[in-house]
Amino acid sequence: MALKSFLQRFRKLDAYAKPLEDVRIRTTTGASVTLFSGVVILTLVIFEIYRYITPEMHPEIVVDSGKMEKLPISFNITFPHLPCYLLSLDLMDESGDHISDYHHDVFKVRLDENGNEIHREKAKDPSNADNREKLAKTDENECGSCYGAKENACCNTCDDVRRAYSDVGWALPPENTIEQCWKENISSQTKEGCNMHGDLMVNKVRGNFHFSPGRSYAHGSAHVHDVRTYLATGHDFSHVIHHLQFGKQNHNAYKQKRTEMAQLANPLDGSKWGTVQPTMMYQYFLKIVSSEFNYINGKHLRTFQYSVSRQERDLRQQGQGGLPGVFFMMDFSPMLVIYSESRGTFASFLTGVCAIIGGIFTVASIVDGFLYRASMHQKRAMGKAM
Asked: Which parts pass through the membrane (predicted)?
């Protein structure tokens, strides 16, 4: 008896009193609201599940303490109106001194007038143009060497050298060691273009790397280029930047995040710039920011992002000094951006699902009640009118 009395009192705590089945009213409007609510709940729960299983990147900015680290640079640039023998690559620090402490793996690809590959070669020293440029300068009165095959004789063409060696029965050395053969090859390259691509590994210091014409050398404290051959040939520094990146970006997870986060793309990839004017100086001012990616699977990636502004100068129209070419001016931010990948907890996921279900049913109940009362009011009004 006491147990029955306790259960009766306990039932009074029920906040969800159930009406009898006979007094429940089911309407078409209520069924429509219920069906619509179910579709909305299912859709939102699916989005909540996707948000739970998809990691998110959370950025954090700290002071960069890795000033002594190396900077990998990867580039692929085409100069459609400049032959490879005229093109050189130089690296300079902030003070204007030539940077020699770097590693490179750079290639030059000769291109025909239509941009098709002719010949690929590795640039042994990209800081200096090949000696072919000076071989391009001819002197009508010169007496070319026969390289020991004939005494007191002139060999002014590649065929002359071949005949001289044939006359004495010597084997002809490689043509890339014979000046006359190089001259003839260079004259045939006048209408060619050049693609230069590869990788550099430099110290992370403010400076620039630039593509310029002619052989570079130090003159006192100045860094100068011999541009006489370039200006005499009528070429120009129109260029296409297929790719320019700083740091390692070959991580598959990074590539996926880079497509999702537009600010991580390399902004110069695919850009074109240039005119037919040979005295143009193209400058790209790069602000490079160190970036660190910490993935949820434990992988770690250290790379760099950059922003860019650019300008062009016609050296004929301005009194300032300069050099025709393409210059990339590097400046480094003292900040480090850390992207940490994380996923929400199961408790937060469960809370979100419950909030969706409870919220939708509550709103649906209010809407259904409002529609039911409006319907009953309309019916009563129609009954009085009759």
From this structure: 30-50, 346-372
